[in-house]
Design a protein that fits this description.
Number of strands of chain B: 28
Shape of chain B: globular
Strand order of the largest sheet of chain A: 6-7-8-3-9-10
Order of helices and strands of chain A: EEEHEEHEHHHHEHEHEEHH
CATH topology of the largest domain in chain A: Rossmann fold
Number of domains of chain A: 2
CATH architecture of the largest domain in chain B: 3-Layer(aba) Sandwich
Largest sheet of chain B: 8 strands, mixed
Structural class of chain A: alpha/beta
CATH class of the largest domain in chain A: Alpha Beta
Number of strands of chain A: 10
Number of domains of chain B: 3
Helix content of chain A: 25-40%
Distance between the termini of chain A: 42 Å
Oligomer: heterodimer
Distance between the termini of chain B: 61 Å
Number of helices of chain B: 22
Chain lengths: 253, 643
């Protein structure tokens, strides 16, 4: 079974421990959530997985690939895609262009081919577009296809961000607070999309999220981080009754 | 291509007509659907093939003659495959609005004896599941989009449409003549669809419509306004509404035009732009929205554009008046209008996808007269239609060169119209429904004496146009028995910018009289501009200058009154605005006529006593905190001079 294993990962910035001895097993075909208060190290963890940071100590493996020192583009080429918390989109480009561009990594034709846009180039681009259209259909972005991203509402931009990650046809998707700043209706939509990403497209989901209600509803496995340490893990019911978790979230009684 | 022969087509059922289309022009595009960002075409051949797969598949799951299939779906080609496939077996289709709530869906499915339901996606399927135990007759739920349906696959109550196609294909291979034979057995006078009509009380009624009802409507409409088989139509109205079925079953089948399905409900307007339809039907709101968009865009545009637009709009409106009445335009105006069309309006309407639009219709509710002029001015041939579900949507229509905004036009060919003694509009044609499903009493009422009773009051004007006034139950009669609609007259009054609200009286009286609320903002501004000082609304309403202003407005309205007894004879300006909190208006802003008459009984009596020109009244106010106060004021009554 392919999975992502994070073994004893520690990340320090000078004297600051962003992560200390984090241990996680992320199973294929599941929704695994990472929760924790602000500054708990959730985003740092995602950065370690996606190759933006390299852990000071410990190992990260995905299947047989060692990600510990891998660069971001290598991580994405082995099937791990990431949707960012602070939208990393080209605000001046249309939704379609943003998504097409996200696939550039998968394009295989020469510069000369690109100039004359004939033969291989046009064929590959057509295939690409087909793939992108599937994602547009999946994320229900049809009404916005040709609109400039900067003009869209925040909720829709978030959806485009998730779509951008999906166009890479990943096996595992890292979602960094996809519901932050959304109203209830937009949240419900995103939840449905996350469920469908798992169920329809068989993509493993790693979800970093603040909204506890949502996390409890849809996660198969939950890890709770506090001050860079895993203070609890397990299924939703298990985590909800964990004394340390309650303390971190609600404070002492 | 064979020349269509009306009588021959009328002798066919919808599936037979589909087969006839295949023989006549099998390769031509019949349907087009936008999916994954591309327009995918289906020829008449393919249309027929899919209908066959669906029909035979349905037969395999035990659907047969006179069984009912309900369709809860966005507009997609599969809706037509399913509906016509079921009709080919002698079955009956029925559309349910996608917005209907589960409980109501359950009640409808139950009352229409539905045995199979077709849903386009999980959202609709889930609603049916919610009422599953209340609909024991439903044997199968067929879905088109498999997304989110993974959990239901083990339950054989559900069926994916591809599996249905497969079933149908298998039977077709075993017995290639079966479908043809089934189609041969259908008759044009068989009921093929149950169309829900909104009942004011209780559940909607299912109007039974026959193959002939639909085909006749399509043929008669295009007899008056011909369409070419190469024309395009965009299907964006809800399928459950007669306004969509009359086009996809009636008009498209009768003429062979292509039906285009938008990608999603939200993209309908931009997809419309890509198709550029020749034929379009919509509720007034669509036309109002598009006009607002044009205004907005022009407003944001740069000065030269605005200048040209304003200039040519005036020219266009002048030209529109000639075009609507069919009169000959003076040469100078014609030249200017031509320049305006080429320079301004063709590029403009191209932006909204109306450049090729030859036949645009509005129906379902009244459209302001200025909207007709607007669309005619920019070169869109917008016309009013009138009809109802029970006569397949359209029975009356404006003709080219004879567009009168205040009428609904003339009957379609082979449609008879009569006004009953009570003033009700009655119609008779091959498109009239045989009745409501399982409601013989309602049917007898509807079709009394062999005429379709519309429930609307109206009259035929001197040009032979039908004018719809109001619902029969809302009209009044003066003491000479002449009919008028208070709402109709009130609306005329409210077209004046100075009049905010009006209450018209005259039931069993000598003449029509009105209590009027002036518009505080517009009239206030008007008074300021003329240096007329006032303090409160009560003060403003009592100004003799304001009374003169309103008097002149009523003179204008009376001059345009269709009939003498519609003219307002006496009026008074009320000292307070009618308000919901005071019980004078309903929550939706309609006047509670009886209550107003009781509350202002003195004024009402004075309106009908021509000797009274002034009256001292006590105005009673209740403030928000419950305190009350009484103010003495004088109210004047004005009698209109005969003109």
């Amino acid at each position: 079974m392919a999975n992502l294993s994070i073994a004893d990962v520690t990340l320090t910035f000078g004297g600051l421990h962003a992560l200390s001895s984090v241990q996680m097993e992320i199973q294929e075909g599941m929704i695994t959530s990472v929760i924790g208060p602000n500054g708990a190290g959730k985003t740092s963890l995602l950065n370690c997985i996606s190759g933006f940071y390299h852990p000071t100590k410990g190992e990260i493996h995905y299947d047989d690939h060692r990600l510990t020192k891998a660069s971001p583009h290598r991580v994405s080429s082995i099937g791990i895609a990431r949707a960012f918390q602070n939208l990393e989109l080209f605000r001046g480009l249309s939704v379609l262009d943003n998504l097409m561009l996200a696939r550039h990594q998968k394009l295989r034709y020469s510069l000369l081919n690109a100039f004359i846009f004939w033969g291989k180039a046009s064929k590959v681009e057509a295939e690409n577009r087909e793939h992108v259209e599937e994602v547009i259909d999946f994320m229900e972005l049809e009404p916005y296809r040709k609109q400039v991203v900067g003009n869209l509402s925040y909720g829709v931009q978030k959806r485009v961000e998730v779509a951008r990650a999906l166009t890479l046809a990943p096996q595992l998707i890292l979602l960094d607070e996809p519901m932050a700043g959304m109203n209830i209706e937009e949240k419900e939509d995103i939840v449905r999309f996350i469920m469908d990403i798992k169920n329809e497209w068989d993509i493993t989901v790693v979800l970093v999220e603040h909204d506890l209600g949502v996390v409890m509803d849809i996660s198969d496995q939950i890890y709770v981080l506090d001050f860079g340490e895993v203070i609890g893990s397990g299924g939703p019911t298990e985590v909800a009754s964990n004394a340390k978790v309650i303390e971190a979230y609600i404070g002492e009684e | 291509m064979k020349a269509p022969d009306t009588d021959h087509l009328l002798s066919l059922s919808i599936p037979q007509l589909l087969r006839w289309r295949v023989e006549a022009s099998g390769n031509k595009t019949a349907l087009r659907e936008k999916d994954f960002g591309r327009w995918i075409s289906y020829s008449w051949d393919q249309y027929y093939e899919y209908t066959r797969k669906t029909g035979l598949g349905l037969q395999q799951i035990g659907f047969g003659k006179e069984d009912k299939i309900a369709i809860i779906s966005d507009n997609i080609p599969e809706v037509l495959y399913v509906a016509i496939g079921a009709q080919a077996l002698g079955g009956i289709s029925a559309g349910i609005y996608q917005t209907t709530l589960p409980d109501e869906i359950g009640q409808i499915l139950d009352s229409l004896d539905v045995s199979v339901v077709f849903c386009n996606d999980q959202e609709q399927v889930d609603k049916v599941i919610e009422v599953r135990d209340k609909i024991p007759n439903v044997k199968k739920v067929i879905y088109e989009d498999s997304r989110g349906m993974r959990g239901y696959q083990s339950d054989d109550w559900f069926m994916f449409i591809e599996d249905l196609y497969e079933l149908g294909d298998k039977i077709h291979q075993q017995n290639p003549d079966l479908f043809e034979k089934l189609i041969d057995e259908t008759r044009p006078d068989d009921v093929c669809h149950l169309c829900l009509t909104s009942g004011t009380t209780g559940l909607p009624k299912g109007a039974m419509l026959t193959h002939k009802n639909y085909i006749n409507m399509g043929l008669q409409l295009t007899e008056a306004d011909p369409l070419d088989p190469t024309d395009e139509y965009v299907s964006f109205l809800p399928f459950a509404w007669i306004g969509e079925q009359m086009n996809s079953f009636g008009v498209a089948m009768a003429t062979g035009i292509a039906v285009n399905f938008p990608e999603s409900v939200e993209t309908a307007m931009s997809d419309l732009k890509e198709i550029g339809p020749h034929f379009m039907f919509g509720a007034p709101r669509i036309y109002e929205t598009i006009r607002s968009q044009i205004w907005l865009k022009i407003d944001e545009s740069y000065w030269l554009n605005k200048l040209c637009y304003n200039y040519f709009m005036k020219i266009g409106e002048q030209a529109a008046r000639y075009r609507m009445t069919g009169e000959k335009m003076p040469r100078g105006l014609r030249l200017k209008a031509w320049i305006g069309k080429q320079m301004m309006f063709r590029p403009l309407i191209n932006q909204i996808g109306f450049l090729r639009l030859r036949r645009a219709y509005t129906g379902g509710a009244a459209l302001g007269p200025e909207l007709f002029t607007f669309y005619q001015a920019i070169g869109v041939n917008l016309k009013q239609i009138y009809g109802q579900t029970e006569i397949v949507g359209i029975a009356y229509m404006h003709r080219d060169g004879d567009v009168r905004p205040d009428t609904v036009g003339k009957p379609l060919p082979r449609t008879e119209c009569k006004i009953s003694d009570k003033g009700e509009i009655l119609s008779r044609s091959d498109s009239v429904t045989p009745g409501y499903y399982k409601q013989p009493e309602k049917t007898a009422e509807l079709l009394e004496g062999g005429w379709l009773h519309s429930g609307d009051a109206g009259y035929i004007d001197e040009n032979g146009h039908l004018v719809v006034i109001d619902r029969v139950s809302d009209v009044m009669h003066n003491n000479r028995g002449e009919m008028f609609s208070p709402m109709f007259i009130e609306n005329r009054l409210k077209f004046s910018p100075y009049i905010k609200e009006a209450v018209v009286f005259g039931d069993q009286r000598d003449y029509v009289a009105a209590l009027i609320n002036v518009d505080p903002i517009v009239v206030g501004k008007w008074a300021e501009d003329r240096g007329i000082s006032f303090s409160t609304f009560m003060d403003l309403s009592a100004k003799p200058e304001v009374a003169d202003l309103i008097y002149d407005e009523i003179v204008k309205i009376n001059r345009n009154a269709e009939k003498d007894h519609f003219k307002i004879h006496r009026f008074a300006i009320l000292y307070k605005l009618l308000d919901v909190d005071d019980g004078e208006l309903t929550k939706t802003g309609k006047i509670r006529r009886k209550f107003v008459r009781e509350k202002y009984h003195d004024l009402y009596e004075a309106l009908y006593d021509e000797d009274i020109s002034e009256k001292q009244v006590e105005a009673f106010y209740q403030y928000q905190d419950g305190q009350t106060t009484t103010v003495q004021t004088k109210i004047r009554f004005y009698t209109m001079e005969e003109n």
